[in-house]
Design brief:
The chain is of the alpha/beta class. It has helices spanning 13-23, 40-48, 59-63, 75-88, 105-114, 164-177, 186-213, 217-223, 226-232, 239-248, 250-272, 276-299, 314-323, 325-328, 332-339; strands at residues 4-9, 31-36, 54-55, 66-71, 96-99, 120-122, 124-127, 153-156, 180-183.
């Protein structure tokens, strides 16, 4: 049986980890994993680590006969990569193209504009479980590993017009990687992603800048440890992609920052008034809500806080404040119907 070719464009942590997982999967003997990166040395290093069967510096050769193309590049590079792929893919080739970018609405629009007809784009975004890989953003190929996506939520922003077989191929990819496919509307995905990533990014940036600019930074930097490192970790990483995430999602980001500022001002007021009871109650309620969220994230059991928390989680409260009950207050049945499917449509890759 001829092996089916999967081309991975980008050999950072995500692209290399996808390659490692595919080459160590039960379907590996039926697959040929081809890697491409604009930095040939990086692609070859990923190949040496076992992520790719071979690499091609020439994108045309890397795409030749590929049935699935995975774009594992930063958001800032995504439009150009889609343009390059679209220029080289023949029309009506039936190639499935997917991505790993944190925003879906703009990427879907770019794909519709740049990919030739008769090929299929399905947006996707793996969200790693909290604690995966430590504090810093995972970017280097040396941080890649085959089990990186174990217990990850693999968001698939399929639309009604997407080819069922293409959707099934991306769902199968998620399952092979060890992740849980989550079918979600692109707009809803982007709103959640901005709240979960861009808001902490901006807050971490402000915290580090304010602390580093303070007169006592020479002493604070020596005393700063785990708390400061984890609180500012979101400020690390690719600046161009973080800028794009902030600006492309600016409406949601601004509302999210306004909500945080309101809470921050309330905390400041409690501290200024020496209101120990309110301050302790706020800390305790938040710690409890976060503990349940962390337990949910580790076990991937998303019903754990139902009936267990007396107070709404901060994330649920923020969703209600920004988007109303229509999104934040979904019933379990609605969430199940929208987010999971035991029988996703279409065919797949592999055997």
């Amino acid at each position: 049986m001829e092996r089916q070719r999967i081309t991975i464009i980008g050999s950072g942590c995500i692209g290399t980890s996808i390659g490692l997982a595919l080459r160590q999967s039960p379907d590996a003997e039926h697959l040929e994993i081809v890697g491409h990166d604009r930095e040939l040395s990086r692609a070859r290093q990923a190949q040496q680590r076992g992520a790719f069967d071979r690499t091609d510096f020439n994108l045309d050769l890397a795409l030749n006969k590929a049935r699935l193309v995975i774009l594992a590049v930063p958001l800032a590079a995504m439009r150009q990569v889609l343009a390059d792929v679209g220029r080289l893919l023949p029309p009506q080739a039936g190639v499935v193209v997917t991505d790993t970018a944190p925003l879906k609405v703009p990427v879907i629009a770019w794909a519709a504009e740049l990919l030739p007809p008769g090929n299929h784009f399905v947006g996707a975004d793996p969200a790693l479980a909290p604690g995966t890989g430590g504090w810093e953003p995972l970017e280097s190929l040396y941080e890649a590993r085959a089990d990186l996506f174990k217990r990850a939520v693999y968001a698939i922003t399929a639309r009604a017009t997407d080819h069922p077989g293409a959707v099934r191929a991306v769902a199968n990819l998620a399952l092979v990687l060890g992740a849980e496919p989550l079918y979600i509307d692109p707009v809803e995905h982007d709103a959640a992603r901005v709240l979960a990533d861009a808001v902490p990014d901006v807050l971490a940036t402000a915290l580090f800048q304010a602390t580093a600019a303070a007169p006592g930074w020479a002493e604070v930097r020596k005393a700063a440890g785990r708390s400061f490192a984890t609180a500012t970790a979101a400020a690390a990483g690719d600046a161009a992609s973080r800028r794009m995430l902030a600006l492309l999602g600016r409406a949601t980001l601004l509302r999210g920052l306004d909500a945080v500022l309101t809470r921050l001002q309330a905390l400041r007021e409690s501290i200024a008034q020496n209101d120990a009871e309110t301050l302790e109650n706020t800390f305790a309620a938040t710690a409890q809500a976060r503990a349940y969220w962390m337990a949910e994230s580790r076990t991937r059991t998303w019903e754990i806080e139902r009936g267990a928390l007396k107070q709404e989680s901060l994330f649920q409260y923020t969703l209600q404040a920004l988007f109303g009950e229509a999104i934040a207050g979904k019933t379990a049945e609605q969430s199940d119907a929208h987010g999971r499917s035991d029988n996703p449509p279409g065919g797949g890759f592999g055997r």
